[in-house]
Specification:
202 residues, alpha/beta
Length: 202
C-alpha cells in the first residue's frame, strides 16, 4: 500500500499479511479523494475504524489540518502508529484507542496525539467510516449518531462517507443525514451523506 498523492506521495505504508483488518484499496482511496479534493485542504478529518491509517494519512498528505483516528484493535493500532512514525508525522493528528461507540459518546476523551491549531468543538468537516462489512449494526449506529442534530459532531456543510459492500444497501437517510451520492467500484461502494440544516422543512 502506498500514499497516492500529496506531501507523502508514493511512500509505502505497512500492512502486514494476516492482520484481521481490511484496508481501503489504493484504487478506492484514489476515487474517494478525487471527490473530496475541493474539501480536503484545511479540513478536520475523522477516520473511524481507522485500521492501518491509510485513509487518514492520505488526508494528512493532501493537506487536512487535523485527522482523528479511531481504532480499537491493538494490532492495527500498533501498525497505525508505526506508519505515522515511518512518515515522521509528529503533529496534526489524534488517536482514540477504543471503540467507535465510545468515541461518538465522548469525542474528546481518550484521544492522544499532537493536535493542530483547529477548533474541534466546531465539529468535523469530513468523516470516513469503514466498519467490518458484515457489521450492519455498526453502520446504523454511527450514521444514526451523525444524523442527530444534538451531537455537535459535524461542522456546517460536513460530508460523511461510508465504505460498504456494493450489495449492502445502506439507508438513504439517517435522521438529518441524507445520502447525496453513491459511487460503486467493483464489489465495493461509497455512500456520501450530508446533514440537512435545521431550517430546512421535513
Amino acid at each position: 500500500m502506498r500514499i497516492i498523492a500529496g506531501t507523502f506521495r508514493s511512500r509505502a505504508l505497512d500492512a502486514p499479511s494476516g492482520l484481521a483488518t481490511r484496508p481501503t484499496s489504493d484504487r478506492l482511496r484514489e476515487t474517494l479523494f478525487n471527490v473530496l479534493a475541493p474539501r480536503i485542504e484545511g479540513a478536520s478529518f475523522l477516520d473511524l475504524y481507522a485500521g492501518l491509517g491509510a485513509v487518514g494519512i492520505e488526508a494528512l498528505s493532501r493537506g487536512a489540518m487535523q485527522v482523528t483516528f479511531v481504532e480499537q484493535a491493538p494490532a492495527a493500532l500498533k501498525v497505525l502508529r508505526a506508519n505515522l512514525d515511518r512518515l515522521k508525522i509528529a503533529a496534526g493528528f489524534r488517536i482514540h484507542a477504543g471503540s467507535v461507540a465510545s468515541f461518538l459518546r465522548k469525542p474528546r476523551a481518550g484521544a492522544v496525539g499532537r493536535a493542530a491549531e483547529v477548533n474541534l468543538d466546531a465539529g468535523f468537516s469530513i468523516v470516513f467510516l469503514d466498519p467490518p462489512y458484515d457489521a450492519a449494526e455498526e453502520y446504523a449506529a454511527a450514521l444514526g449518531q451523525f444524523g442527530s442534530f444534538s451531537t455537535g459532531l459535524l461542522a456546517t456543510g460536513a460530508v460523511v462517507i461510508a465504505e460498504h459492500r456494493r450489495k449492502q444497501r445502506l439507508e438513504p437517510q439517517y435522521g438529518a443525514l441524507e445520502r447525496t451520492r453513491l459511487l460503486e467500484q467493483g464489489d465495493v461502494a461509497l455512500s456520501f451523506y450530508a446533514a440537512k440544516t435545521v431550517s430546512e422543512p421535513e
